Amino acid sequence: PAAVIGHSQGEIAAAHVAGILSLSDAARLVALRSRAIRRLSGLGAMAHVAVPAADLVLPAGVFVAAVNGPSSTVVSGDV
Question: Is residue 30 domain-shared with residue 51, that is, in the same domain?
Fold first, then answer.
């Protein structure tokens, strides 16, 4: 490819597709990153919602964490 991009774990996949990381190194990095995020997450949780961020009505303690696209929002809050 002429160019690749990624977000979150997709950055690692993009680096592999671009030839920067071997498949083995990319898989190891995904696993290590996942373990680190789990340890750092504390008592919170995240969820993907297939709804535009502007259309969400969120309860107290739940927040928009990321807008991944026009109909792709990640929310976070207490478990």
Answer: no
